[in-house]
Every structure is written in C-alpha cells, then in structure tokens.
Amino acid sequence: MEGEKGVEKKFAWGKTQNEAEEPIVSFAELMSEELAESLSKEDADEEEKYLKQLEFVLNSTAMDEVLLNTDGMTDEEVAIALQRQFDREDDVARAVQSTDTVHFTPERYHPKTAQESESDEEDLDELREIATDMLYAQLDAENARNSTRLHADGASSSTTTKHDIGVSGRRNADKTLNDRMNLTTGDMISGKINNRVYNSLLAFGKSDAKRQMRMKDKEEKATMDTSVDANTRLTLLKWINQGVIDSIEGIIATGKESAVLHAKQNENNEHYAVKVYKTTLSEFKNRSEYVKDDFRFKNPRGVLKIWAEREFMNLSRMTKHGLPCPCPFKLKKNMLAMSLIGNGGIAAPRLKNVQWEFFTDEERRGIYEQVEKIMCRMYKECLLVHGDLSEFNLLLNLENNQVFVIDVSQAMDLSHPRNLQFLTRDIANILAFFARIETPGLPSSVQLFNLITDLEMKEDDDLNVQVEQFSEENRAVHLRHDKSRPADLELSRYQEDKKANRGISPARDYN
Ligand SMILES: Nc1ncnc2c1ncn2[C@@H]1O[C@H](COP(=O)(O)OP(=O)(O)OP(=O)(O)O)[C@@H](O)[C@H]1O
C-alpha cells in the first residue's frame, strides 16, 4: 500500500506529501496516542455516567426522607416507606462499587465474576474516590439535617472535587503534532509522540535522565527503574490528558517504598506531589509488623494498590479533620496525587534535614508543640495512630515554621489491636529526636502517652510493660468511641461490598 520511493505520493484530496499539514508519524506513534486518548476518554465517559447515576440515586434517597417523616402513617405505610429507603440506600452502596450500568433496585444487583473484577477493579479507584466524597457529603448532610426537613438546594449533589466533571471536562482535545524527539516511555509510547503531552513528559524525561545520570547509588537507580515504569507514565499521561496536571517537573524524593514526583497544574498555578508506590515488594519485608498474617500481602499484585488506597483513606480522614497534612485528590492503582507541602513548588524539608542550629529554643519548642498536637489530634479526632512517626515523616514549612505530617499508608485505626504499642514507638521516636536537637521542656514518654490517650499510665513504671499489660487486660475493649461516623460507615459499606463480591472477611481488609 505504501507509495514507491522517489515517486511523489499524492493524497486522495489532491495534496502532495510535502504539502501535508501534519508531519507523518509512524504507526506506533499513532497507536500510542490513540491508545492514550481512548483510555482517557473511556475513563472520562465512565466517570461522567457514573456521577449522573449516583447523583440521581442520592437525590432519590433524599426524597424518601420526606415520606418517612410524614406523620399519621399506618404501620403498614411506615414499613413500606422504610423498605423503600432501605432499597435506596442499598442502591447507593452498590452504586459506589459498580462501574457497570447502575440499576436502581437491589434485586437487579449481582456480584461481578472474578474475571470481570480483575480488569474492572483497576479503573474503580478513581470512581470510588469520587463516590466516597459524594457519599460522605450525603451522610454528613443527613446527620446534620433535621430528620423532618430536607435541604431545598440538594447540597449533596453539588459537592465537587478537583477531579470531577469540571476537571475531567478540560481534556486535551486538540493535539498538535509539532515536534519529534526521543523519549523512552516503555511499551505504551514506544519511541516518539508529538503533542502537549509529549512535551510535558519530555520535561520529566529530561530531569529523569539527568537524575539517572547523577545517580551513583545502585539502590536509588533501582527505585527509578521500577517506580516510574511504563504503566506509571501511562497514568501520568492520562492525568495530563484529563487536565488533572499539566506537567511533571521532576522527582522530589525516592523513599523506601515509593518515588514522589513533583507535578504542576498551570491553570491554578498549583503544585502537587504524586506518590508512586514501587512495583517491587522487596521493601515490604521490612513492614512485617504491619503485614503479618494479613491475607492481602499473600497476593503481591494487590499490595501496592492497597497501600496507595490506605494512604488515600487516611489522608482523607485527616484532611477532613483539618490536620496539617497533604490533601489527597487522585488515586489510581499504585499512584496517589496530593497537595505539595512547600512553597512555590519547592518541597518543604523533613525535620531530619532542617538546620536546627539556626532555630531558637522557643522556635524548637513551638515546633515540638505542633508535633504533639498532631499526635493528639490524630488519635482523638481521626482515631488513628501514625505507626511510623519520626523526623523523616514530618515536614517543616520554613516560611512560617508550620509542621505537616506525611506518609500515613501504615497509619492504623484505633481498632487495630496493637495501636498502643505503635503509639509508644512513635512517642519514643519523637521525644528522642526533639531531645537530640535540644528542645527545652520536653515531657516524659508516659506524660505524652497519657496526654494523647487520656489513659493513666504510671510515671515510675516502664511504659512498654504497662502498655503490654493494658492491651492484655483490655483485649475486648475498643478504644474507638463512636462507631457510627460517616467515614466508618462508608468504609464498612465498602468492605461489606467487597466481602459480598469476593467472600473475603472485611474485618481483616482494613486494619
Ligand atoms: N505531599 C508532599 N509534599 C512534599 N514532599 C513530599 C510529599 N510527600 C512526600 N514528600 C517527600 O517525599 C519523601 C518520601 O515520601 P514518603 O515518606 O511518603 O514515602 P516513603 O516511600 O514512605 O518514604 P520513607 O519510607 O523513606 O519515609 C518524603 O520524605 C518527603 O520529603
């Protein structure tokens, strides 16, 4: 079908090859762009369809409340109304989990086959995230609302997130082929593409390449090779296509189990951190305390995704309570996008890396107090224990000396049987660090423990021993006070659905 060499090729519409407006691109290039476009279109379409359906279900649920609160109903009418409400709620819970067409009666619901969930699952995160936000808003509204009254403005349906219709609508429809350069992006792109996405990725590719050249350390090189792989780049490309981000500016850090990239959104001049969980599991062995006996870690394929999901959930809970931490807004497979802690795109340093000799006693004391408050609020308001808290997972904004907490994928709910032991370890780490930088007026570990938990451990006895003893004696006592918070409701619904779909115990799925 190709024209012979040397013979001027004419197109059907009369132009010669030289006059063609767009550069000729290889089949592989076209396929790559088409693939990326079609994938992101599928995502956006599915997301839009889903949002509409969910909005409809949530609004329908709200309508039923009016019926339920009508006085003077017979018992039979009340029973019917209750049944209807139950059915609606059931539909909402199912809608949260389903990417297929959502039907609005529970009897039509059927669990996916294992095969379907394998492939569909990967695209579910983003939808689950949006659905979760909406469900929280709905549940919050329900809690706040007087049971006999209904908001006239339907507040639940107006909840927006950075990545909903507005953002996904700003997709890069017009691609201009304007440049041809090499970029190793794995199988998906296989060589060259010419468009805005390419340019954005190119910037990343350059800094990536420069950094790789600088990297002498084998281990760090391995991190790059495994974290920013073809799939990661494909997801980044899709995010760029969807307008979620405009460019990847470089690498902020490579941690033990992740690479953290710096992403930028030009329109709002916002900077984001994209945490990419490594695709190798070698580091997870260091996490044996967390993963021991946990069925999820017997199947490595789902592990990274679950870590990202846990970090997303924990950060969401913390953000909701106003804790100083990154605000998560996008979750996809093993990638989590969140706000960048820092100034003007420069990431804030970890407490470990701060030059403490330039800080006064009062300043160090003030920074300690912020950390103390973070620990108290995480425990009391978020019902979480960090579990890996130290000077490595606390960032300091040098402009205003504000402390932020990061890296909460392993943070555990107070229902975790060993949460107090992990808390004790966090306390030891924090006090040891602040003692090292000569912070005045530090409490003892027992004092700090009691402050955080409101328990009454004795000053003179060893805290670890007391905690073990306390845990032993109070096995059946749950430290969680309020089990009916929206976040927990959502989580238990999510877990129930998972259980229904897969026959897996929800109790072991999350803490
Ligand atoms: N939202 C953020 N804003 C700015 N910097 C960040 C953000 N998230 C992570 N970082 C930087 O990336 C580094 C690694 O992130 P994080 O601690 O979450 O990953 P990790 O793989 O768990 O690392 P490690 O296990 O070594 O602590 C952090 O030490 C911090 O410097």
TrEMBL record:
Transmembrane segment boundaries: none
Example GO molecular function: metal ion binding
Class of enzymatic activity (EC top level): transferase
UniProt EC number: 2.7.11.1
Keyword field: ATP-binding, Kinase, Magnesium, Metal-binding, Nucleotide-binding, Serine/threonine-protein kinase, Transferase
Reactions that this protein is recorded to catalyse: L-seryl-[protein] + ATP = O-phospho-L-seryl-[protein] + ADP + H(+); L-threonyl-[protein] + ATP = O-phospho-L-threonyl-[protein] + ADP + H(+)
Recorded coiled-coil stretches: none
Region (Disordered): 148-172, 488-511
InterPro entries: Kinase-like_dom_sf, RIO-type_Ser/Thr_kinase, RIO_dom, RIO_kinase, RIO_kinase_CS, Ser/Thr_kinase_Rio3
Chain ranges of the RIO kinase domain: 217-454
Biased composition (Basic and acidic residues): 161-172, 488-500
Similarity section: Belongs to the protein kinase superfamily. RIO-type Ser/Thr kinase family.
Protein's UniProt name: Serine/threonine-protein kinase RIO3
Upper classification of the organism: Eukaryota, Metazoa, Ecdysozoa, Nematoda, Chromadorea
